[in-house]
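[audit] Reproducing an earlier prediction to check determinism. Same input, same settings, fresh worker. If the tokens differ from the archived copy the diff job will pick it up downstream; this log only records the rerun itself.
[audit] input (563 residues):
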Amino acid sequence: MSGIYTPLEPATAPARPMDGNRHSLLGSQTHLALDNSEDMIHSRSESSDSHHSSMSSSNKLATSAEEGLRKEIGLISASSIIVGQVVGSGIFSTPGSVALLCGTPAMALVLWAVSGVVSLGGALGSAELGTMFPQNGGMIRYLAHSYPRPRALVATIMAYSVTFFCRPAAIAANVAVFAQYFFFAAGKHDYIESRDYLLRGIGAVVMTVLLILNIVSVRWSLRLLNVFAAIKMVTLLIVSITGFLLLVGILKRTPGTNWSRGFSGTKFDAQSFASAMTRLFWSWEGWSNVGYVVGEVKNVKRNLPLSLGLAMSTLGVLYLLANVAYFSIIPLEDIDNGTLLAAQFLDRVFGPTMGQKVLPACIGISILGVVMSELFGGGRLMYTAGKTGFVPYGTMLGEIHPRFGTPIYALLIIWALSLVFLFAPPPGQAFDLLVDLVQEGMWYFYALTAFGVIILRRRLPQYPLRRFRSPLILAGLFGGLSFALGVLQFYPPARIPGSSDPKVPYYLAPLLGVIFMVLCGIPWYLRMWRYVNRTGIQLLAWIDNEEQEVLQMTNDQVRHLSA
């Protein structure tokens, strides 16, 4: 992300203290502006001024990424946050529909590999931006630095779209369905169709429990995320190792033509390709979640790129092996699009208990892990949206609980919005449309973030905190494909054999997503133009201040900040 519409002088006063001897990289001018906008400037400025005399210039610049938030996320926890968001139910169901859309398992395997490499390019680009701007906020912060004019329009639209719609709606969509898998495993199939609000109520209770844990303890939240990630990996490993044993011939494959047919019968039409790639990229989506908590990652210059690279590479290998396993056992003609492909696979290899009992329970736990990761990252996202001035009441949203060290009000607002999305839509088409809407619009933000890597490489070529450089060709490819996938949502999708006709027009979800993003221009105008012009407060001063403070650092100060 880049500078603001009118550059300001770098801050000369230190930010408020954090953990005794570290400070926020946000300049003190920005803190004063935000506090002034909430009628609290006097108490905040006195706190900052009283501390100014005791701090050296070196400490002012060698700052911590976030004030009040402790760095408790190591390599394992950062990887768990990524795995927790990426691995949901997709890899256990998507391979079947992708193969049916492609026409052959061989082409499906190629597209899985291509989408994985391109997604890795997007993740590594995010790692570069995260090391440059090691504060919480992820794409909000990256887009602000990349596209500062006019008045951080892109970042503002992203802030409102994701914090007030996409993230809480995603939490609601996931928490509403996780209980279905446990009822299915228990043989209570009637509960899945007839007890919609019971399932939502269970989801609300579980989400509240996860919220409380997120509020009272970062450490235990991370431990639970690690447990969820371990369960996901074990489940995926069972399938993937079976695929490896089939690949090397230790286990006998089911006779069939899945692999012997090669690419014969592959569908090359644009509809099939677009529909397949949309499903594939959403199976990889979720790595951006770690960017929202960068300010709490230990040794960010090492752990952020390493966690993204290791997590995505490992998942790439496991995903490919899982596909090999599925199609070495299940002939393409036997795929039941209404049944999880992994369940069909486990039924045939290990018996019905694994396919009908164990796997659904594991998927339910996997979805819970996604909800936990979404709450953890979503709270930091809301915290940053307020702290950086994009949304009003930044002082409240940026409040860190003095005992627990968590953004309590930001977490509570994400939870409250998720409850609204959970219970407001009636059962049926309206709730299904909400699920579809969650993903609309994000393609464009992913594309602009990837292009931001290239823009900042040219605009800030010697930026001291750029301790990691991603392959620009992969970042550009990811950006181009992401933008194309956003546009292709308006293209009629291919029909999967055996699937029912959609109940709503295919273009409705992407159209509503674009309309919502356009409507986000209203709060942008009210906040960044009307409010700023009326009060004279420079809400976006932090963007230029961050860059200027870093550009003035010595090598020792850079090493201290990157630690």
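[audit] rerun output stored. Observation attached for the diff report: The two ends are 22 Å apart (CA to CA).
[audit] end
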